Amino acid sequence: MGARAAALIGLVLAGTASAQGYPSKTIRMVVAFPPGGIADFAARSVSAGLTDALRVPVVVENRPGAGGIIGADFVAKAAPDGYTVLVTSISQAINPAFVKKLPYDTRRDFAPVMLIADAPNLLVVHPSVPARSLAELIDWARAHPGALSYASSGVGTSTHLCGELFRQMAKVDVVHVPYKGGGPAVADLLGGQVQMMFATLPTVLEHARSGRLRAIATTGAQRFAGAREFPTMAEAGLPGYDVSAWTGMFAPARTPRAAIDRLAQETAKILRSGAIRERLLAQGAEASVKMPEEFGAFVDSELTKWQRLVQSAGLRTEDK
Q1: What is the assigned CATH class of domain 24-118+245-319?
Q2: What is the pLDDT, as a whole number, of residue 319?
Q3: What is the pTM of this model?
Q4: CA-to-CA distance for 315 and 317, rounded, in angstroms?
Q5: What single-letter DSSP state applies at residue 110?
Q6: Domain spanning 121-236 has what CATH number?
Q7: pLDDT tens, residue by residue, 140-199
Q8: Where would I find the H helices in 153-242?
Q9: Where in the chain is CATH 3.40.190.10?
């Protein structure tokens, strides 16, 4: 047997041994946001199931800051051995459009593992707005340019870019009013200081059902399972409108494929269980299974989508 053939066989055997031996120690699941949000909730729900399935501890570690950048940067620079993974949000696709000098490259420095959850926003308006459907809202906005202001939880968040996408697709002149978080934004919306918002479902769903706010449509591709009474934006009159504040898992680039596949397979089993689906619904999200290749293609499309929107809107990176 030649030296080259022996070397190739050695590499194959080493890879097989590595796949069979993974995991053999604690896996650290880094969440790029503080405790309490959907990314943290999803990570903790998944980590408990992975601990049982993999028979090693899977511990959640919150590394919040800079809209998800601090946690993402930590994982991008971690050893690519399958023992450090990132759970983050749509910010992973939005931040590259806003921040000129990220400390990492989202496409180059991460290996997509799994889409975990989709969380559409809900377009709600103050009852003083004389519109009960998306078509009526668009007509009124076109007839009164600049009269409608929409709140968001901050520049560069999904609640902001939902509004910007609406502005461009519907060809309306609406004014963005950013807040430092969803709570203050919803409070001013309830008080009539702003007229509309693409809000996270848990923050406005009860207000919409009680009539304190008027629900117009959800932003995802399909109706949200926890609130099927509301149409999607596409159904209501803007075909192609699709925004979800998704949560996904990433590993450092060059992580062994065996480790990525094992994590993806076990996470998919967990997400298909009825218990976790119900728990996510209560948080305004739906469990969503996209395996590594499909998730990677999805992330790539999201990066392109938000880059184009930010550029066409002339949004400055200094604002983020």
Answers
A1: alpha beta
A2: 42
A3: 0.89
A4: 7
A5: E
A6: 3.40.190.10
A7: 999 999 999 999 999 999 999 999 999 999 999 999 999 999 999 999 999 999 999 999
A8: 158-170, 182-191, 201-210, 233-236
A9: 121-236
